[in-house]
Amino acid sequence: MTYPLPVKNTKLFEPISQWICNIPHCKILQLELVQAELGKVVMRIPYQERLVADRRTGVLHGGVITALMDTASGLSIFTMLEGLLGYPTLDLRIDYLRPATPGLPVYCEAETYRLAKEIAFTRATAYQDGNPLPVATSVGTFMRRRSPKGGQA
Fold it and tell me: Does the residue 150 lie in any domain?
């Protein structure tokens, strides 16, 4: 994989991105990393009939979009880290703007726009090729995990 603007630490990011894509629910959803650069990632989920919410329309379940946006947002944080730190989701607010068009993959571009001492702030857009209107947008906050002894993890 090539990185247009280098991630902070490729030796950290590459195994983390592979690990995240192999978490059981990510693997089942077939989430994949498409691109990564400093502060941003693009992830993709292919259209799969087994993930459809309504068989009559073929529209993907909203939870699939949520998983994609949460995962991409969290992974964007790791493009900015020099060392391994945990950043679990604290809050994720999603605006669903339209149903995803059946048969097409859904992409998510996520960025960490502020990495503070305790909190990472992200925003993301889920979209599909050929339609200028996003499927969904999100903003999220991720909390820096503390070690059991009270210091930073």
Answer: no
Let me know: does 89 contact 24? Beta carbons within 8 Å: no
What is the C-alpha to C-alpha distance for residues 118 and 144, in angstroms, rounded to an integer?
A: 5
Query: Is residue 43 a contact partner of residue 68, using CB atoms and an 8 Å limit?
Result: yes
CB-CB contact of 73 with 122 (8 Å): yes
pTM for this entry: 0.89
69/89 Cα distance (integer angstroms): 11
User: From CA 36, how far away is CA 7, in angstroms rounded?
Assistant: 7
Q: Can you read off the two tokens belonging to residue 130?
A: 């050929």
Q: How many domains does the chain have?
A: 1
Q: Can you list the alpha helix ranges (DSSP code H) found in 4-107?
A: 10-21, 24-29, 62-78
For residue range 94-105, what is the model confidence (pLDDT) as tens digits?
999 999 999 999
